[in-house]
C-alpha cells in the first residue's frame, strides 16, 4: 500500500490527510470512487435525511471509501462504530474491520473527530434553563448543530434551511424566524443578515449565532420587543457565507493567520468583490429616459469571469425571496458602507453619491 493525499471533496474534513487505493470496496482510483453509488450516498446523506442522521455517518463512510493511511500502512476504522450504524450501509459489502489499530489507539471514532474541532463542546449542566445561551467560539459543525438546536427549541417560530453549498461542499446554513416558518406572507417584510463573507472575519458569524439564540430565548420569555419583531417580520440569518475560508483561517488559529489567510474562498475568490457591479449600471441607466432602476439586469460581461458557487447561491436566494432590507457583517474596521458603495466618477473615491433613499438609509 502507498499513502496518497485525500482528493475526495466530500471527505476533506476527516481527521487524517492521506488514504490508500484500493479502498475497502476494492475501488482502485479516485474516478471510480466518485462515480460509485456509495460516494453519491455520502455526498447527499445530510440533505437526504434532512439533517436527522448521526453527524458521524458521513465521516464513517469516508473511512470506508478513503481508508486512513500512515507510513504506507492502512489504519482500519472501528468495528463497534461501524456496527452501530450498519443499517444505513446494508448495501455495502461489509469488510472486516480491525479495532486494534483504531486511529492512534483512540478509544472511539468520535474521539478522533474531536481533534478537528477548534473548540470542543463542553459538558453543560442538565438543569440549565431552556433560554440559556452559551458564549463560545463555534466551529462549522458546532454552528450547524447550534442553529438546529435553536430551531428545534423554537420550532413554532423557527426553521433552518440551506441556500446552497460552498465550493468544498459545505451547506450555507440559514436559520429563519417568523410566525409561519418556511412561508412568505403577503405584506410581511423579509429581512436578512449575512456574516463571515470573509472567512477570517468571524465576529459577525458569532454575533448572528448569538442573535439566533437570543431571538428564540427572548421570544419564549415573552419579551414584547422581540415578539413584535418576529410576529411582524420574517428574519433570515446566514452566519457563514464562506465556511471554507473560515476553516482555513481556523486551522492557523487566532492571531497567527494574518489578515489574508481564509479571507477568500477555496477558489481564491473574494466574495465581497464577486457580485455584479450594479451601481455603475445604475449610474449608466440613470441618464436614459424611462429606464428602470428597481430591476437592473446583470450585464452579460459579468458572466465572463469566475462566479463562486457561494455567490450564485445568494443570487438564487435573492430571486426566491423578496427581501426589503439586508446587511452583511464584516470585521476588522469600524465602517458602515451602504448604497451607493461606488462614487459616480471612479476617479473620485470620496465623492458624495447618494441614492434616492439616502435619508431612509441614514435613519436606519
Automatic annotation (TrEMBL):
The keyword Electron transport does not apply. GO terms for molecular function: metallocarboxypeptidase activity; zinc ion binding. Keywords: Carboxypeptidase, Disulfide bond, Hydrolase, Metal-binding, Metalloprotease, Protease, Zinc. Gene3D superfamilies: Frizzled cysteine-rich domain, Zn peptidases. Residues 136-364 form the Peptidase M14 domain. Pfam families: Fz (PF01392), Peptidase_M14 (PF00246). The lineage of its organism: Eukaryota, Metazoa, Chordata, Craniata, Vertebrata. GO terms for biological process: peptide metabolic process; protein processing. The keyword Zinc applies. Belongs to the peptidase M14 family. This is CBPZ Carboxypeptidase. Its cofactor is Zn(2+). GO terms for cellular component: extracellular space. It comes from the Eukaryota. Residues 1-96 form the FZ domain.
